[in-house]
Amino acid sequence: MFKVTNANEYLVITGLNIPDIKVVRKAIIWPGQRYTQFSLTPLNYTLSLHAMTIEKLEFTLPAVFTIGPEDTPESIMKYARLLAANDAHSIHHIQELVTGIVEGETRVIAAGMTMEEIFKERKFFKEHVLQGVQSELNQFGMIIYNANVKQLQDAPGSEYFKYLRLKSQEGAINQAKVDVAQAQMIGAVGEKEREAEQRKNIIEIEATTVIYEQNRKVDIAKAQSQLETEQTILNNNVKIAEIESEKKAALREAELQRNIEIQNALVTQERERADKLSKTVVEAEMIQALADAELYKAKSQADAKFYEQQRQADAMKVNFEAQAEGLKLLHQAFNGDSNATLQFLMLDRGIYQDLAKANAEAVKGMSPKISVWNTGNENSDTTTQTIRDVYKSLPPLMSIINEQTGIKPPGWVGTLPTEQ
């Protein structure tokens, strides 16, 4: 059988193959083994401890202790071996054991102290009780988690704390009465002292005020006298200053009048100079303006002429470029024959006619050599008459051109006549 405990519990296993005991949280319980399950949860023990002091005074000490197993391996083994059980009898046995330990330790410690010591040194008493109880619980593997010791109370048949409270009450009442009387006395004395102090302060203040007033009157008189003296000096100074001011004003007026006259003379001189200078400047500016106008006119004309010449040059350049391009194309049309190109240009531009006219003018009045050509019968039909007239005029024309310029006609036009 497999057993698993809760987080606050342990299993105590004895029996087969376990020499002593085995404390675990989970285990398999084999046949021949027994187990007991116990909890670590501490329990509260409410006690009313009955004890007696060294003075044979009995008292009751109500207390609440929270005690449980200590969760260390050694303490768990002790607790499991001595006290572990889950039945009601075991739990009652543990309660009796704890109660007995706490009462025993409390009695032992109280027997060595007086009631006054216990009452005044409750912290010391509590610590000693806890130390004694814990030393006894250690052998059972238990620990005190918390202890709350309440107020000491009278045991049955004892009225110590009752009378002590009455004594304290009466003492407090009497002390309160004394305190009240003392306070009243202090209040009355203080009131008189305050009255005397008040009167004293009033007298001192009044005396100080009178002295202050007298001193202020003296100061006022001195200030008034000094003020009158200062006023007299100031009046004299004012009169002197007025006289000096009048003299200075007269001198200043004369000086200003002289400066005004000088300035007037300078202004007149400058005005005349400015008039002359302005006329000169105007004439110079007019001359300069006329010169600038002539210069601008000449410059404009020069610029216009230059622009016109530049336009003519540009036009000539364009014309020459066009003529050059045309000559280039014409030369290409004659398959590169420069002589044929030249002859065509001369014919196209009428150079031959111009030369003929020039020669005619040159030989006018002279006896030039005249060649007469007759290429055929003049009685031909009119259809070929025109062509025949052209061919009849070519030989003498070509001959004249050759004689004048040395240029020979192309082969397709004809050949020059040979001299006989």
Characterize the structure shown.
The chain has eight helices and nine strands. The chain has 420 residues and is α+β, with helices and mostly antiparallel strands. Strands 6, 7, 8 and 9 form a four-stranded antiparallel sheet that branches. It has a three-stranded antiparallel sheet with strand order 3-2-5, covered by helices on one side. The protein has a two-stranded antiparallel sheet with strand order 1-4. Strand 2 and strand 3 form a beta hairpin. Helix 2 packs across helix 4 and helix 7 crosses helix 8. It is elongated. It starts with a strand and ends in a 15-residue tail after the last helix.
Key features of this structure:
420 residues; alpha+beta; 3-stranded antiparallel β-sheet; 8 helices
How would you sum up this structure in a few lines?
This protein has helices at 73-82, 88-111, 115-120, 122-137, 160-333, 338-348, 351-363, 385-405; strands at 2-4, 9-15, 18-24, 26-28, 33-39, 43-52, 58-69, 142-149, 153-154. By secondary structure, the protein is of the alpha+beta class.
Give the beta-strand count. Answer: 9
> How many DSSP helices?
8
Let me know the average pLDDT: 78
How large is the radius of gyration?
A: 80 Å
State the low-pLDDT regions, or none: none
> What proportion of the residues is helical, as a percent range?
55-70%
Shape: elongated
**Largest sheet: number of strands, sense, barrel closure:** 4 strands, antiparallel
What structural class should be given to the helix and strand makeup? Answer: alpha+beta
Helix and strand pattern:
EEEEEEEHHHHEEHHHH
Strand content: 5-15%
The end-to-end span amounts to 170 Å
